Amino acid sequence: MTKLFNDKNFWKTAIKLTVPVALQNLLTSSFTLADTLLVSSLGTVALSSVGMMGQWSWLINMILVGFCSATTLFISQFWGIKNLKKIRHIGGIAIIFSLAVSVTFTAVSLCIPELIVRIFNSDADVIEAGSQYLKIMAFSFLPIAVTNILAAILRAVENVKLPMYVSGFTTVLNIFLDYCMIFGKFGFHKMGIRGAALATAVSAWLGLVLVVLISFIQKNILAVNSRDFFRFSREELKAFVSKASPVVLNESMWGLGTFVYNIVFGNMGYEYFSALTIVRSFENIAFVIFIGICSASSVMIGKSIGQGKIERGITDSKRFTVIVPVLAFVIAVLIVVFRNQLVSIFNMGNNISQLTISTARNLMIVYAAAFPLRMMPYLEIVSVFRSGGDTITGAKYELICLWALSVPATIISVYVFKVPFIAAYAIMYIFEDIPKNILCFRHYLSNKWIKPVTKEGVEGLKSFKMKKDGKNQ
User: Fold this and answer.
1) b/e 194-207 (16+ beta carbons within 10 angstroms → b)
2) DSSP per residue over 306-346, as a string?
3) pLDDT in tens, 388-433
4) Torsion, CA 137, CA 161, CA 65, CA 317, rounded to 10
5) CA–CA dist 27, 20 (Å, integer)
6) Contacting residues for 57 by C-beta, under 8 A, at least 6 apart
7) What is the pTM of this model?
8) Phi, psi of 453, rounded to the nearest 5 degrees
9) Beta bridge partner(s), residue 389
10) How far apart are CA 263 and CA 87, in angstroms?
């Protein structure tokens, strides 16, 4: 074990790639936390409404994550052999698909906002507040989609600082605009919940402008004529679609599954959903370091496999499969120890009901217990399997555990057995994460997830298998 981690180059590269991505997501999550805190001062209905519409945004985000993951798969391997032309072509394909998704969600959000809110809760006040929020926030979908793809391209070529800096600036701006527009400060009109939505949209558009502008100043991988991104061949499009389809299906269906959970939870009462909104604000912060780790491992493993250095890719994957559960356990303990203090932050103005606060504290315990089990499949599916070129197996395991086990178990427990809210929340985790851990770990040990997309990677895999067969004989 000591020998496995006695590699200075591994730690240097891992930290260099992990920290900026983790910081970027910490900034984003901090905004979500600050946004939730500011909105909570408007009361339980406003908090619940924003939380519900956050889940609509979550659905589009999960689809976009699928395209970003597929983009990282290709670009990290092409980056290993420094094929910049292919990198830009893959980026262009991903941008087109992401634009199509974002435009569709924007149109639906603007045309039927009340219907979308009603899916979660039929309370008239919630529908009115949620609709006001969604009709403005919808204008953030398009810039967020393009910015996510551009950030994925930059991270895959080991330029992790630019997305972090832009995210930091827009997060601070977003919080400032939130304060000004919600409460009518510094000459702004007092807009309440609509102000929170407008702040999000303005910050999203500025973030996209900054990424493009700074890229041309830096002359990085994005600083070329836009036509260079869209001159891809039919073969490149076909290859991207074949690899991206399982990933996008995986993330979309997982996002839809979460959407279904939230419909169930939302209809159990908006006070309960407010508690869930509070917990998710902290979930995002607990999760940020693992987003950074998985981003780093995706680049490192994918780059090695793209170069044909299969053994190095496998060794790095082993290191990350030890780091993640240990770190997840430590964070889980901290969540349990400080849960009361964390939840109490949201009730400093005494605007949140006692039921919401007590429920949130109990949910924190359940989430902490599930946290280590949740992080391992995340690493293996999103990072190891996909960067190795296997986009199908992880999707299959995730969708089976979600749709064949967890979603039915949660629905039955709520509507048939009438279990309490906390029990339903725990059942969701139990039926999804335990079987998924078993399936993913077995597949990881088999090394069948190594499926290179570069010529050098294919040759390297052949040599690795010959060497392994020779040792076995």
Assistant:
1) bbbbbbbbbbbbbb
2) HHT-HHHHHHHHHHHHHHHHHHHHHHHHHHHHTHHHHHHGG
3) 989 889 989 999 999 999 999 999 999 999 999 999 999 999 999 9
4) -160
5) 10
6) 137, 141
7) 0.73
8) -110, 0
9) 450
10) 39
